[in-house]
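Quick note —
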Amino acid sequence: MSRSKIALLYVGGSIGMKVNQKTGCIEPLESLSEVHRFLPELQKEVSLQFFSVANVGSSEINPSHWEEIALLIRDIYEDFDGFVVVHGTNTMSYTAAALSFALQGLSKPVVLTGALLPINDLAGDGRMNLVFAIRTAQLDIAEVCIALGPNVLRGTRAKKVEASFLQTFESPNCMPLADFSREVSLADHRIVRRKRTLNCTPSFNPNVVLLSVYPGMPEAFMDSVLAALPDGIILRTYGPGMLSKELFPWLQKVTEAEIPICITSQALRGMVDLHKYRKQLVLEKLGIISGKNMTFECAVVKMMWALTQSKDPRKIRNLMEKNIVGEMDD
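Predicted structure written out below.
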């Protein structure tokens, strides 16, 4: 029986580090192929090939890295059965969302994983997460996902919630795609492998502003944001999309400037509903985009991507409110 061919793309993070037994310092692995030394059993199960994309902490990740990862996957797509992207955990949600929009029409899984501790730390999570990620890359899944611990989460729905081995990430509005708790179980709502044509569009406009509203938010601050001429705005509002009517004149200025503005909820499991209250109907008439139950991380990335797909505010609104890769409920 032939082994699955899995591409391992290293971007950064603790899995690519090790503890120097002499000095106690954390330092990079000399070569990514050292991963084999820590997981010798995997060589019987899969054929791994290593690709170095970058070696940066997740706080240093930017849209150019998203583009580089997507283009590399496109270039080697036909040669592998699945892809594992090793990445720091702090911005993993953003990268997973970005790859989801950049790589549409997948027929194979793209799995992001990482660790809180270096791979050679016996009490760490690096080996376990890498094993789960490589095994996820062999499953009947065909979408971008995150595998840290036994749960496999949809890439557009995952959020980092705590620095814990047991539950680093959570998917507030979407059940896991797979579970390795005992036997592997696969969820019915996952996208399955079948023949599709990969559509790679890894373009992002980073001139997007994220704002969270709060009581007493100064009007001068809001005006300064508008004066900076962002190409798009994500506004995190209360509950189902509520905000002070004092902000309505500012929203009018934004829409008159034809700057797409999308509202999401500050509630972890919130759903924006612009039809529930009369005041919210005014927002809809102003052309405010409903982020529905997208995470704010996904909304930011989707706005960056949508801005490169069209210059027409109406088309951008349609893209933002359309469920493209499972990022929101229909």
